[in-house]
Amino acid sequence: MNYVNDSAPMHFASAVNAPVTAVYCSTVPAFGFGPLSDNATVIEAKPAPDCRPCGLHGHSQCPEGHFNCAEHITNKQLLSRI
């Protein structure tokens, strides 16, 4: 299993049909660039913050000052893929 964020490693793993768990914070898979592997899951904050997406490629710092798009992803969500 490849645990990756919305990044080049996610696309590399997806390109060779490797299992992928993609973590989306400030970006969204709805832009059409999510994982394409047969065994792929997207993990994101529930409920998604209203400020998301904050940019096409996200930001290094949260424009709202809270970063809830990442802080509200739970360990349970991540561990569910093991």
* Helix-strand string: EHEEHH
Please state roughly what percent of the residues sit in beta strands, choosing from under 5%, 5-15%, 15-25%, 25-35%, 35-45% or over 45%: 5-15%
Which percent bin holds the helix content?
Answer: 10-25%
The spatial strand order of the largest sheet comes to 1-2-3
Instruction: Supply Rg.
Output: 12 Å
Number of domains: 1
Question: Main β-sheet, in a few words?
Answer: 3 strands, parallel
SS-derived structural category? alpha/beta
Strand element count? 3
Q: Helical segment tally?
A: 3
> Which regions have little confidence, pLDDT < 50, spanning 5+ residues?
none
Mean pLDDT: 90
Protein model, in words:
- There is one protein chain.
- The chain has a three-stranded parallel β-sheet, covered by helices on one side.
- By secondary structure, the protein is α/β, with parallel strands linked by helices.
- It has one domain (2-79).
- It has three helices and three strands; from the N terminus they run βαββαα.
- 21% of the residues lie in helices and 15% in strands.
What structural keywords apply?
alpha/beta, three-stranded parallel beta sheet, globular, 82 residues
